[in-house]
Every structure is written in structure tokens, then in C-alpha cells.
Design brief:
about 35% strand; 11 helices; five-stranded mixed beta sheet; disordered N terminus
Length: about 475
């Protein structure tokens, strides 16, 4: 936020429709056109400190379940308290609670809902082709009421979008942008020190084309953007948390990014994610450049120690291994955190001698497995190879993989002048299309085994017959008869 700097701007907006949808409570649907002069106070370059922020979204029903001392000890810096707390507890009680939280080093943000509430359902930003002025005025008055709360640290907007069930129009998109400009400016006139944040759907393309949110533009007016990177709901892995966080950072025009993370399996399964998984998710967002993380939500989450997550160190348990080139085999590694807990759902990339050979995700025991096929081993080299295990945060470990030749079995039998040759590997499987050298009476003959690993040679006259097999992936073997 540019403290105390007021930019007079005439902003003319053509009407256009907006449709938004949120995985929590953040919708903005309305078209607003600024045809007159208004004081616009823009955010960014703001009062927000550079430390890492950690917090929870908290429903009003869960407010009094919070142990503020415990939260503070566990590194919680911010609580996004649902707006119904104002209705349930009253202004005086709420301000007292905010003061108490502040004394523990915890900032309180009022978590509001813009274009959707359980009472109203979805509200369109544009009605009959015009900005929903009456709703805008009512909602901004509500936000101003919260902004006047003594000791409050921030206003958080949810459901700033269309529902997603309809395609947003340019009028709708402009209306949502207009609401953002008007509301943030009004809030800052009441309290310029508030951190104004918004929760957004996690796909930048969908934000523009489905939910009617002009992200690059609105990111000029918010201090903090919180993309709802709920990997369980969207059936994504941890790498998606990293890439989505980076996308929002790269496309922001000044707003800080605090990544919103899901603390349970998905909306159909409220089973809590393990501490080790949450720690790894938090670390993934921070490694991507996020300035903080917010957990959705308190009440369906383990008791996270954000200090552990921020300082999380990952250990790659990977050992040297040996394989026979023609057989291949499985290789596995284990990821553990600083406390020896397995790290699940982490993508691991494997390269052999600088060439990518595959990737795998760790299971609930922190184990990632990859199949080193005979094709992979044959493309390596007989002897010592370097297998590199790489994590999304760039951490690597290199181990030695030894590739050996197989010891084949060569048998010959003679019936009169007919020599029957059988070639098998060490597992007694036939070696097909193998080139065999036969020597007889000073002459050299080249044979090739059939699908059963067999070949036949008819000797011309008496004398010893020497049979030899030599290959890149097999030890040399010879027999005389």
C-alpha cells in the first residue's frame, strides 16, 4: 500500500459481466463503472513486513476453541476470522478478543464474503446490463464497518467472483474490478494500515474467463492475494502447489502471495492430512516464493507447528544398488522430515548419467519407487553409473548404480555331424536372436538363435567344433565338442 498517497484518477469502465466461483467463500459478481472522479488509494509497496506469515481461516463457531498461547508458540501470525463473529459476539467482545490476540503476536483479519453468502446465495455484479450499485453500496458499508474495529489488522474478501456456472462477460469482469477499486479505497480511507487481502480460485486462466476476475489489475489494489491451492479438491500433487504459487507471484502487480492450503483430504473426506504432509505442503509453497501460507481451515486440521514447517529439512534415504543389465529391477528411496516422519505425496525425479529416466510420488510411508527396466540399464553402461534423485525444491542426492553383465548358459550336443546349440540366460530363459560364432576345421561360421534360443550347425567332416557367444550385455562363454 502507498501509505498516505492518494491518486486522483478518472476511470471509465465499459459494462461487462462477471461470473465467479470459490472453493471457500469468495465471490464477486457485479459490473461497476466509474464515470466520475473518485479518490482511489492503491495498495502494494506496503506496510506489510517481510517476515513469513502463517495462519488459519477460522469460522465464528471455532473462535473460542482457539488457544492463542498455543497458536503463538506454533508460529501462527494471522487469523482470518469469519465475519459472523461480529454478529455472534458483538463489537465490544470482538474488539477485546482482537486485542488479546494482538498481545500474543497474532493479527486478526475479518474474513468477509462478497458475492455469495448462505443467506443471499450468489449475487450478480451486473443486473440488467448495469452495475449492481445498490449491492455494491451495501457491501462496501459492511466492509467499512469491519474496518473501523479497534485493533483489527486486516480485511479479507472471499467469493470475489462469479459462481463459475455461467460464463463471465467483459461487463461482469469490469464490475468486479470496479468493486475492488471502490471497496479497497474506501477501506483505506477509514484505516490505511489495514492489510486488504482476497482469496482467489487457483487457475489464472479460469479466473479471467470463467470467474470474471482480472487478476493482473486487481493485484494492484490488494496487499495480499491468497490463491486457494487446495490440492485435494483439485486432485493435484505437491508440484502443483509450487507451480501455482509461482504463477500467481509472476503475474502479480505488487500484491504479496500467501498460498492457501487445504488441511484435509477433500470436501467429501474431511480426514485430516498428516503433520508431515502439511509441513511439506507449506514448505513447497514457501520454496516457490510465497510470503506466507494460510490453512483452510481451523477445526479440520492437525495442530500445525509452522515453525517446524518453515524450517523443514528433508532427508533423502537412497542407497547404492546393483543390477544385471538384461533383467532390470526396482529401485526405491525414502523421504523423511527433520523428525524422522515420512513425507508423502512428494514428486521425485530420477536421472541416470544426466538423462531423465522417470519420476514417482512418495506413498504414505514416504517411499517412491521406480522401475529400472533393462532398456534403461542397457542405455547406461556396464560398470558404475550415477543415479541422481531430485526433489521439487532442488535438493538432490547421487548414488552409484552398478550395471553388470549376465552369465549365460551355453550347451551343445552332437548327433553324428549335427551340432545342436542351446543358449539361455542365468534365469534359464532362452536368449533370442543371439549371434553365435562356430569354428570348425579353421573356418568360422556365424549363426543366430531362434525364439527358443536354439541354433543348429552341420559339420563338414570330422574334427572338433568350437562354439562361442560374446555380447555387450553377457559375459563371454565358449564350449568345445
Amino acid at each position: 500500500m502507498l501509505n498516505g498517497k492518494v491518486i486522483l484518477a478518472i476511470i471509465v469502465f465499459a459494462l461487462f459481466t462477471l461470473a465467479c466461483v470459490s472453493a471457500q467463500d469468495n465471490v464477486t459478481d457485479d459490473v461497476v463503472s466509474l464515470g466520475d472522479e473518485c479518490d482511489v488509494i492503491q495498495s502494494n509497496e506496503s506496510h506489510i513486513d517481510e517476515s513469513i506469515h502463517s495462519g488459519y481461516w477460522v469460522l465464528s463457531a471455532d473462535r473460542n476453541k482457539l488457544d492463542l498461547d498455543d497458536l503463538s508458540e506454533h508460529g501462527v501470525t494471522d487469523v482470518f476470522l469469519n465475519f459472523r463473529s461480529y454478529e455472534v459476539y458483538g463489537k465490544d467482545d470482538l474488539e477485546s478478543w482482537i486485542s488479546n490476540a494482538s498481545q500474543k503476536g497474532i493479527h486478526t483479519h475479518i474474513w468477509t464474503q462478497i458475492f455469495w453468502t448462505s443467506k443471499t446465495g450468489w449475487v450478480l455484479p451486473v443486473v440488467n446490463g448495469s452495475e449492481n450499485t445498490e449491492f455494491f453500496t451495501h457491501k462496501i458499508d459492511e466492509l467499512n464497518m469491519y474496518a473501523s474495529l479497534k485493533g483489527l489488522s486486516g480485511i479479507h474478501m472471499d467469493y470475489l467472483r462469479y459462481s463459475g456456472s455461467q460464463t463471465s462477460s467483459e461487463e461482469g469482469k469490469r464490475a468486479i474490478t470496479d468493486f475492488v477499486i471502490k471497496s479497497t479505497s474506501s477501506i483505506r480511507q477509514i484505516n490505511p494500515n489495514l492489510t486488504i487481502s482476497v482469496a482467489l480460485m487457483p487457475n489464472l486462466n479460469s479466473l479471467q474467463n470463467v470467474y470474471g476476475v482480472d487478476y493482473p489489475t486487481i493485484s494492484r489494489y490488494f496487499d495480499v492475494i491468497i490463491p486457494m491451492v487446495y490440492s485435494g479438491n483439485f486432485k493435484k500433487d505437491r508440484e502443483w502447489i509450487t507451480s501455482t504459487t509461482r504463477d500467481f507471484i509472476l503475474n502479480s502487480n505488487g500484491a504479496k502471495i500467501w498460498t492457501g492450503l487445504q488441511s484435509y483430504v477433500n470436501d467429501q473426506d474431511l480426514t485430516h492430512l498428516s503433520i508431515s504432509q502439511m509441513n511439506a505442503d507449506i514448505k513447497a509453497a514457501l520454496n516457490a516464493g510465497a510470503s506466507g501460507t494460510v490453512i483452510f481451515r481451523y477445526g479440520v486440521s492437525e495442530n500445525i507447528n509452522f515453525n517446524d514447517a518453515i524450517n523443514l529439512a528433508v532427508t533423502i534415504d537412497a542407497k547404492p544398488a546393483s543390477y544385471v543389465a538384461v533383467f532390470g529391477g526396482k529401485y526405491q528411496i525414502t523421504l523423511k522430515d527433520s523428525y524422522g516422519n515420512p513425507i508423502p505425496s512428494e514428486k521425485v525425479i530420477f536421472t541416470m548419467n544426466g538423462k531423465g529416466i522417470g519420476s514417482a510420488c512418495t506413498d504414505s510411508n514416504g517411499i517412491a519407487k521406480i522401475k529400472l527396466t533393462s532398456k534403461i540399464l542397457k542405455s547406461a553402461k556396464i560398470g558404475t553409473n550415477k543415479l541422481v534423485i531430485k526433489l521439487p525444491d532442488g535438493k538432490t542426492k547421487t548414488v552409484k548404480i552398478t550395471v553388470k553383465k549376465d552369465k549365460p548358459k551355453l550347451k551343445i550336443s552332437k548327433k553324428k555331424r549335427k551340432i545342436r546349440i542351446t543358449l539361455k540366460n542365468s534365469r534359464n530363459d532362452p536368449i533370442k536372436k543371439a549371434k553365435i560364432t562356430v569354428k570348425h576345421k579353421g573356418k568360422v561360421y556365424k549363426l543366430k538363435t531362434n525364439s527358443k534360443g536354439k541354433a543348429t550347425f552341420k559339420a563338414k567332416g570330422k574334427g572338433k567344433v568350437s562354439v562361442k557367444f560374446k555380447s555387450k550385455y553377457y559375459k563371454s562363454v565358449s564350449v568345445k565338442i
